[in-house]
């Protein structure tokens, strides 16, 4: 018996719906169809009237979620793809993210973004939007990398009184499996040491944690002990755990699947350089996707984003500095 | 209507005297339509006013002090200096605080109405305000369609005041009439001469009653002319003088006053007394607020999250300015 990352997301939503009558799900094709990825499979059947198909209107979908949240509901929004959240960006960053600051009325909405690249998905079904949303005050941005976190963090996202951008990685949906759903979880905002090591720290999040772990395994065979820090939430960012790891290893490589200009990897390096410059034995490095739209063809796509192989290469390079 | 006009004039005066930071936005010419919207609603309804809805806000129950405190930046106001001027509201009391992006409030009203439906609270109505320019936004279309699909009790009031900032109708839309925009979504539309208070009261009451009775969303299009600039910083020389002279350019307040006099429902003395009364109310509110504290950047918590324990502190990266 095992459970996938996708099944964990579905199970978390089922539990949220069962436990709290204020929860409802709203998004395109989430009803009887069960969602483009089946993350809401059977939920409309099991919770009649609480899992609603929406028109293709991302702005109005998020706007309605905000209105419902003001009235005390706790909506879960499924964006069909993270890429499609941009037509709803205005409502997310200008309405949801500012509401509490402006009025002291909380805005407990969860926006699920099926994120990241999969083979053949191309420029508009592959994006990682977490850095964009993390830029705005008033939002929490979660990037679960494990089945356990996908489940427990989604439940926490629904429970939190603020808007949460929940970046779930499509490449993990069916690939990643765990023996069972977790019964306990780390607190929101705490990073996790996914693998301990003493030679070099890789800070990453979401699906890249899996690539980083694969790279660490390969480098272990070469005699290097790599520590992998899974950020779990990128906002808030657990600088303490990152800094403690860099203090142990003296070397920092930040890996992210999103575009290279700015973003999570740049933020982590900026913080370490500012607050922990003396901990570094070598210049901190970062590895991101290329600065082009995400290509369709697998030959191009495999080279566009970081992989276990390129993480290995970057780590070897840094170990020699 | 009169209270709103007097309040607006007072705010404009304070702005010209340099007492108000940011902008001042008047409802001059739009009071009849706006007040009719506020009066047609009742406590427990949801209202998303826009920048020229001072009259509607007062009619819906927003205290005069909320406007004055938000304009003057009093820390005791509903926005406590964090937002200003027309960007005010009390979401828990059904007045949604507008953001600047036009059309964005309509779907928020939709969501509030969906929540009421989830909670089995029947008989609630939501009203949202938009202008001729706002009907060009995607948000307007998405939200109107959403309200129609969900068959929500929404009244969407379009104030066609002929200009979106400086842009005239002919550069804003190409349909013959803004009423046409409702047709595409299966939404009934009501036309109203927004310079005529009586007609506004009747049409808004009808639209609200129809949606409250389960008739689904309704759109009301009022025609009028904005009798002021976009804001008090704006010299509206771009407004066509022919429009000003046309029936569209009538001042709804004067029209209403003349009607009161001609019908014998009030005499000049009563109107004068009313004006004195509301002027005193506004003056007292301003005097009160001018004695109130402004927000203090050093006691401000600078926390954008309700979950304060998840707020990141950036002070090491960006040290706070010293007093």
Describe what this molecule looks like in 3D.
The complex is a heterodimer of chains A (321) and B (323). Helices cover 38% and strands 17% of the residues of chain A. Chain A contains 11 helices and 14 strands. With 321 residues, chain A is of the alpha/beta class. Chain A is globular. The termini of chain A are far apart. In chain A, the strands form 3 sheets. Chain A has a 7-stranded mixed β-sheet with strand order 3-2-4-5-7-6-12, sandwiched between helices. Chain A has a 5-stranded mixed β-sheet with strand order 9-11-10-13-14, with helices on both faces. Chain A has a two-stranded antiparallel ribbon with strand order 1-8. In chain A, α1 packs parallel to α6, α7 crosses α11 and α8 packs across α9. Chain B has 323 residues and is of the alpha/beta class. Chain B has a domain of 219 residues: Rossmann fold (3-Layer(aba) Sandwich). Helices cover 40% and strands 10% of the residues of chain B. In chain B, β2, α6 and β3 form a beta-alpha-beta unit. The longest helix of chain B has 23 residues.
Indicate the mean pLDDT of chain A.
Answer: 97
Number of strands of chain B: 7
CATH topology of the largest domain in chain A: Rossmann fold
Strand order of the largest sheet of chain A: 3-2-4-5-7-6-12
Q: What's the Cα radius of gyration of chain A?
A: 19 Å
| Number of discrete domains of chain A | 2
Biggest beta sheet summary of chain A: 7 strands, mixed
| Lateral strand order in the biggest sheet of chain B | 1-2-3-7-6
CATH homologous superfamily descriptor of the domain at 25-64 and 84-262 in chain B: Thiamin diphosphate (ThDP)-binding fold, Pyr/PP domains
**What's the N-to-C terminus distance of chain A?**
45 Å
Shape annotation of chain A: globular
